[in-house]
Write the C-alpha cells for this entry.
Amino acid sequence: EGVAAVFKRFFFGHCQMQLLLTRGKGREILNNNNNSKSKVSSFPWQLVRSVCDVVLEQPYENINSLKNAVVRDEDEKYEAKILPVSVQVAASPVKLLRSSDTDRDNKSAGALLILVGDALATAHYRLGIGINSAFNLVRLCVGPMVRRMMLSTHDSTEEGKLTRMQHVSAVKTKFEADVRRVVGPALQLQASTMFYETYCGLVVFFDDTADNMLDGQLLYSRSSSRAAAPKNGAAAASTTDEGALDDFDYFEIDYGELGKMCHQHMHQNG
C-alpha cells in the first residue's frame, strides 16, 4: 500500500532499489521525516522490508537484517534517503562561450557548450531523457549542429570574425529549437507517467509496437472490476510470461473515464 513502482539500479558491488510512492504516502513519509530529529528512525524501514518480501528472492527476516544489508558511507551513515520528486529542466540546452567576456561586437573566438541526455532534465526511473532520447538527440540535434558549425568561415579578417560569430549564434538558435522538439515529448512522457502512477493510482505499461513511448502508454487500474477497451486498439502490455498479468488484479482502463478516476483518487488521498 502506498508504493506506485519499484525499480533497480546496478552499481559496482551493490544494487540500489528505488521506490516511487503514491502522493498520499509520499507526503506522509516526507512530513514524518522532516519533523523527526532522527532521520534513521523516521525512515520507512517496514515499508521497504515489505517491498523486499515481494521483489527479492531471499527477503530479510526482520528490519535489523535489512539495515545490516544497506550500504553505509564513510561516516557509517545509511545510504537510504527520502527525496521529494521534482523535475528540473535546463533553461537552455546550449551556451555560447567567447574568449573575451567584454566582447560587445561579437568578434572574439566562440564555441558552443551543449547539454545532452539527463543533463537537460531531471531523470526518474526508466523515464530519463538520456536513455530514451539519446539517439534521437544525436541524430536530430547534435549531428546537424556539428555539420552547421563546420560550414563556418575561416576568414581571419575582422569582417570574417564577425560573420563567424553570427553564424555560431544562428547555429545556437537552431539547436535550441531542435532540442525542444525532441525533449518536449520526453518530458511529457515522464510527467504524465509519474502523474498516472502517483496521483491516479494506475500502473503504466508500454506497447513496444507503438511509434513512440508517449503513444504507447498503456494504463491499468489496480482494482478495477472489469477490463475496458484498449486505447487505440492497442494490445495488452507485453510481459515476459504469457498471461503473467492474470496473477494480479490489473485491468486496462476505459480512457473515457480517465479524468474521473484520477479526480476520485486524488480526492481520496488528499
